[in-house]
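Hey,
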Amino acid sequence: MASPAALASAAAPAYTPPFHLESGSPADLREPTMTEPASAGSPSQGRPSALSGTGARAEASPGRLPVPLTSFVGREGEIAEVEQAQAGARLLTLTGAGGAGKTRLAGAVAERSAAADRFADGVFWVDLVPLADGELVAQSVAGALQVGEQPGESLGVTLSGFLASRRVLLVLDNCEHVGPAVARLLVVLLSACPGLCVLATSRASLGVPGEVVWPVPPLSVEAGPSAAGELGAIEAVRLFVDRARAAAPGFRLTQDNAWTVLSICRRLDGLPLAIELAAARTPVLTAVQILVRLDDSLRLLTRGAATEAPHHKTLRATLDWSHALLDASEQRLFRRLGVFAGGFTLEATEAVCADGDDPAGAGTGLAVEDVLDRLADLLEKSLVVLADRQAEAEARYRLLEPIRQYAVERLEAAGEQAAVRARHAGYFLALAEAAEPELTGAAAHEWYERLQRDLGNLRAALDWGLGDDGDDETAPRLLSALWRFAQTRGHIREAAEWADRVVARLPDRVPAAVRARAHYAVGVVFGALGRKDAIDQVKLALDLFTEQDDRLGMAWALNDLGWLTLTIDAAGPAQAAVYYLASVEHKRAIGNAWDLAITLTNLGEVARMSGDYEAAEAYFTEVIELPGAIGDKQTGDVLHNLGHLALHRHEVSRAESRFREGLALHARLGYRRGAAECLAGLASVHVVRGEAERATVLFGASAGLLDAAGVRLDEPTHSEVQAHVDAARTRLGEAAWKAAWQRGWSQPADDLAALVERLANALPDEAPAAATTPLTPALPGGLTAREREVAVLLAAGLTNDEIADELTVVSKTVEKHVTNILSKLGFDNRAQVAAWAVARGLAEAPEDLDALAEG
């Protein structure tokens, strides 16, 4: 039987000239002994350009660079970096996940190299996708170079002789499935041919000595602080718009759809193939419809161009291609990593994904000691990526979202989902409970950051605990451990949704201690949103704490009953003081300075509300002088209160100092509500000084932070601040006041420390020149708390009547709220509101978007 190499030789195409941009005859590249070509056609040349994505490329004759059939978008910076890396490496391998755009990036670099005549003897392209056998690699390279086999001589030796004195760039595309054969050939060629440079693309490194690996990143989906209004300049958005216009020529990026398009790109983690496939749906779906269907991206993204390579025609095909290249243990770890949402550490991977041998003794488990090596394999093969690790002591990894969805499918098919999700929930419950006591200590900032990094995993653990496969205790224990984090980091509305689900399925068989803490957490969360049922939940907790003689729990519940009496029950400061004093009695006996500081602060606020400023200052001063650290949050709260006391006494400079100190502490902690209160205090200082415009910008920023956190100002702060807001409004006039308020409101608040620095330290006294309008739905004045609530219910697909029932109001009131929401957001229909809420993480995607739009 003929060897594969012999068969390939027999079937080889007739000679055509190699891709060559040098003047002169292509025959100059050939050995004198080689047969003269029958003809010499001119090579097609691609225009040098920046590119990204995985768009179709025309088939090329052997050795020629394939000509792209779609336009090039983005990757300008990457091209320059690859060229720089190539200058110092004879073998440069571009690695990355399937669909990351490795081929297009390699093509761009190759075209520029050819156009600049960097390789005197030519640039040659070899596509290895069609090869099913590694033995054919050398044959394919020989075909590209038009080098014939010599009797009695291996192709490696023949190619070495041909390339020995030539300066050539050889591009080997899609090496992953024949990697060992490619590596063997390159060891021979690079050793014998000093003028040969190789640019390879592969999902894993080739392992050749001297190889430089350059991971191809996803497209950028982030806008810098100075580019808030330039969403259309973001690489991923540019690619989507370009491919959408090709599919639907009437598509345009507009004020209404820009944020939605960016949200699509972010949901797809900037993966070029996924973005191109999503954009291909624009002839039949709006951007909003595409976004809400991305929970099943593998089904949505199934229509590639007919000219695409088979493994790039659908997202599932390219992932099937990658998965098939893994061995059994790599596949096992890969599918189990699908349970992680938002990233994972090695420690978490070992705890969740390792299980040893299976009970049947078939040896199909994954041992802890094998996890590191298998994780390294998946990282090398570009199915796992290394997340940002600059602020972490431990490396963190993640799967790009489309890849994670594929891993989950594989996990379900393997029948392992229940066991792995249970281990995942257990690990993150342990993390949350370890963090809870630390959130009030000296290391609070580090623990808040750790929980923030794993927010996606904590959500997944809560979801499991409340699902059909969950147990009775996981969800209530998680809520009890996380309520303070949710309150501080602005996740209180989401926490309320979890709390409703916890209360709905909290059976009596759950231990009383767990139920007590759960009812307390639910009460705190509900209370932050002004819900009247918060009082009932805290009273239930108080009863359970009392039954167990849990004095600290009783102190917590009494403290919060005082707070709820003021904010919800409207019983007045006198009744609130009764609860607070009872709480203080327990806390003094326990001797916990941090807990005592909370209630003393609350007593100070009651005194301040009653106009007894001397008593208020006495309480606040006692808090500051308590032995032991009371934490940044509590210190910041006290400084905020002392700032208002100083304003009452007309000590303006002292007030400003207090507010600034408190603001710095809250910004460091990421506590949006506390930062908003201190910003409002600073604004009040500027009103007193007659700086109404500067004050209004700060008021607007404060309101934006409160809205983002889903909370409101408590009394007496609200009344004091409102008086200063009204004064500034009167002084500026309506038009100027609205403009200044909007400048503050529209400030990005993702990085609280950066926001604070801009507003509190660097904001000019005079209003800046006309601000750039963000290319996002306008938010003039922002939504009120109730309007935001209506928007979330609307996004869930509820009708006006159903929303009215949910909020216990009449339908006409809901209709008015919906009209206000559409007006403030600049929208035309309910579907746009749904997309706005989904994009900001306020709501899940509705099941029937078309019906919502019609409603």
